[in-house]
Design brief:
single chain, 400 residues, alpha/beta, 12 strands
Length: 400
């Protein structure tokens, strides 16, 4: 998955379990700076859970999440499993081993346990202190910017700079790395507080961040409303006074005003009419270009995803089964589930629709993983498929 582009978000072996339910199981992918990464799959496949885990609405069960090279999420289950397996393996092998072999086995067990506990301690530290360290970095940047200017200034200019410095320093101390990731939720009606005005909804993040200048807050809110295609007069209204498309624009404004680097768009158009869907997608495209945003776009409408995304990851039953560029995935779908999804896309062509054949995906019939287990393998550059060795060879033959 290497590319000249900087990797903004890296997800490694993400697992999110709720009791015995494996909502997301061993999912890995990168999102490069400035791109739109599409995450598709049927309802219940774990797309939204993946997005919510990345933004830390859930404490992940296992795996690692890196944002801007800093680990913001770390699960502990894999370390505990490794310790349990090491103890179990020692117990079984020690039954038939002599004294010398038992001593060697014990040393190996202790080494594994020590290493896993060390990694667990590092994971706990990163999970707890990533925001604190980021705030310290932001404080250092603010001091580096303002202190030389204050020293060089005199009179009224110095007083103005001191006031700006105190304001920026207060915000820097409250800064959290995760605020550079914002989420647009699927249902705008449910995600907007009905008791708050539009101005209060959009400005809430700025206030939590530490901004106290009401004039500046109102100015930013008005600018953001115009940016998303609304007018300043809408700021005093409540969410029930707007249509579904307008509510979603308010949700987008609430996210973008925080100046994020990554937007997680969780099916932002699925609850909207088709004509409004196009408007919202075009708005996201414009914001991406003008503000340099990176987008993780979660959807199940493959036509929309193909138009909007640079790369696409296909999820099934909590697992990533195929990952490729948008054009490559539609040109050479290899995994049977991907082919099944693509066969379900309707086209406004009666003749085509008469001949279109739906492909049904039956994992029990398609795969034999009783002996050779599947892993994510690179079939061709930047095209990954979850398969075992026999399937890998078959896919290579197909491409040839």
């Amino acid at each position: 998955m290497e590319n000249n582009q900087e990797v903004l978000l890296r997800v490694e072996h993400l697992c999110q379990f709720f009791g015995s339910t494996k909502a997301v199981n061993d999912v890995s992918f990168d999102v490069k700076k400035g791109e739109v990464f599409g995450l598709v799959g049927e309802s219940g496949c774990g797309k939204t859970t993946t997005g919510r885990s990345i933004i830390k609405l859930y404490d992940i069960t296992s795996g690692n999440i890196y944002f801007k090279g800093i680990r913001i999420g770390a699960g502990l289950m894999s370390y505990r499993v490794a310790i349990r397996e090491a103890k179990k393996s020692f117990k079984e092998k020690a039954k038939t081993a002599d004294a010398a072999s038992r001593s060697a086995l014990k040393s190996e067990r202790d080494r594994i346990i020590h290493e896993q506990k060390k990694q667990m301690k590092a994971a706990k530290y990163d999970r707890k202190h990533c925001d604190k360290e980021y705030a310290e970095q932001q404080v250092a940047l603010v001091k580096g910017k303002y202190l030389p200017l204050i020293s060089a200034a005199r009179g009224e200019k110095q007083r103005t700079l001191r006031s700006e410095y105190r304001n920026e320093l207060r915000k820097a101390k409250k800064a959290r790395l995760v605020t550079k990731i914002q989420m647009i939720f699927q249902d705008p009606s449910a995600s907007l507080d009905p008791r708050l005005t539009v101005r209060e909804i959009i400005s809430e993040g700025l206030i939590i961040q530490g901004e106290k200048n009401k004039e500046l807050i109102n100015q930013k809110v008005d600018e953001m409303l115009e940016t998303v295609g609304l007018v300043r007069e809408h700021a005093g209204r409540y969410q029930h006074e707007f249509s579904g498309g307008q509510r979603q624009r308010i949700g987008i404004a609430r996210s973008v005003i925080m100046q994020p680097e990554l937007i997680i768009a969780d099916e932002p158009v699925s609850a909207l009419d088709v004509s409004i869907q196009a408007q919202v997608i075009n708005l996201l495209n414009d914001l991406r270009e003008h503000l340099g945003l990176t987008v993780l776009f979660i959807a199940h409408d493959l036509s929309v995803v193909k138009y909007f995304s640079d790369r696409i990851g296909v999820m099934y039953f909590g697992e990533m089964v195929e990952l490729a560029s948008s054009d490559e995935l539609f040109l050479n779908p290899l995994h049977p589930y991907t082919r099944s999804l693509l066969s379900a896309i309707p086209l406004p062509d009666p003749e085509y629709e008469k001949k279109r054949k739906r492909i049904t995906y039956n994992p029990l019939a398609e795969h034999d993983y009783s002996v050779d287990k599947p892993t994510m393998r690179e079939i061709k550059p930047e095209h990954f498929v979850k398969c075992n060795q026999a399937e890998y060879e078959k896919y290579l033959a197909q491409l040839k």
